[in-house]
Amino acid sequence: MDETVRLEALSKTYGSGDNAVTALRGVTLEFPPGSFTAIMGPSGSGKSTLLQCAAGLDRPSGGRVVVAGTDLSVLDETALTLLRRDRIGFVFQSFNLLPSLTAAQNVALPLRLAGIRPDPAEITAALREVGLEDRASHRPSELSGGQQQRVAIARALVTKPAVLFADEPTGALDTMTSRDLLRTLRGLVDRATRASGDKPIAGIRTIVMVTHDPVVAAYAHRVVFLADGRVVGELADPTADAVAARMVHLEVAAQ
Ligand SMILES: Nc1ncnc2c1ncn2[C@@H]1O[C@H](COP(=O)(O)OP(=O)(O)OP(=O)(O)O)[C@@H](O)[C@H]1O
Question: Which one-letter DSSP state was computed for residue 163?
């Protein structure tokens, strides 16, 4: 099956009449399996809106989102909820773990909510992917911020989604912890892509991450730049310096 995520002429306008704000203006992008993409752009350029629409958390005003062959625009709310649950992973800046549950129980939660009895081996595999196998029985308050975000990532991976969307995933972490986490994210994609064909893996082959930090973006395979709701450029194999230089241009142009 083609697991590519496609955005086709995506547009989004909030409100109407005099209060209308257009956040996306015809964005077309592809995120194929094996890709780790960072989305960057000045404040208000539409990054979060793009992620929300691509992840089926918000409806676009025009265009289509296709996730692994499914066109989200034809789904009713129930079908969209199920697709989000089964095929899409999401991590936010805040970790959103349930404080009373252990790491393993937090990871198992999406399966329980789907009415699936979690296989302990799968939970361990998801925690192993993020280097937290030995913290399975710890509660969030007994884990560092970086470890809590790793649990959140393991929880997003446990349903084996087609894509993981991450909105500023290192925004609440210090520099060293951020770098470790980004290395882990990059490693997940690179390892899953190398892993052999049909073998089920807890890893993830496609990550789309919004960030405002060039150092963070440089961990991705590719950076897509947005300005005023449009794609205005891309950079493959980015370095932090090259990303920062592009951002300076965009920010000057946005003023
Ligand atoms: N719920 C909403 N209602 C009205 N306008 C909105 C809403 N959400 C976003 N916007 C507007 O849409 C535009 C794009 O916002 P968005 O949050 O996607 O940008 P962003 O690039 O993620 O910004 P930042 O880097 O500051 O988080 C902005 O002008 C914003 O004010």
Answer: E
Question: What are the φ/ψ torsions at residue 31 (nearest 5 degrees)?
Answer: -120, 90
- Characterize 6-36 residue by residue with b for buried, 16 or more Cβ atoms within 10 angstroms of its Cβ, and e for exposed: bbbebbbbeeeeeeeeebbbebebebebebb
Q: Give the position, in ligand 1's atom list, of the atom nearest the Cα of 50.
A: 18
Domains and CATH numbers, the chain: 5-254 (3.40.50.300)
User: Is 0.90 topped by the overall pTM?
Assistant: yes
Tokens representing 131? 């280097």
Show the tokens assigned to 232.
């205005």
- Angle between the 120-129 and 145-157 helix axes, to the nearest 10 degrees? 130
**Distance from C-alpha of 194 to C-alpha of 203, rounded to nearest angstrom:** 11
Amino acid at 241: D
Ligand 1 centroid to residue 159 C-alpha, Å: 29
> Which residues sit with their C-beta closer than 6 Å to ligand 1?
14-15, 21, 23, 41, 43-49, 212
The predicted pLDDT at position 28 comes to 98
In the predicted model, what is the mean pLDDT of the chain?
A: 92
SS3 89: strand
Cα 136–141–147 angle (5° rounding)?
55
Q: Which SS3 state, helix, strand or coil, does residue 61 take?
A: coil
List pLDDT tens digits, range 18-34. 999 999 999 999 999 99
Distances (CA, A) of 114 to 32, 118, 159, 161: 27, 10, 10, 14
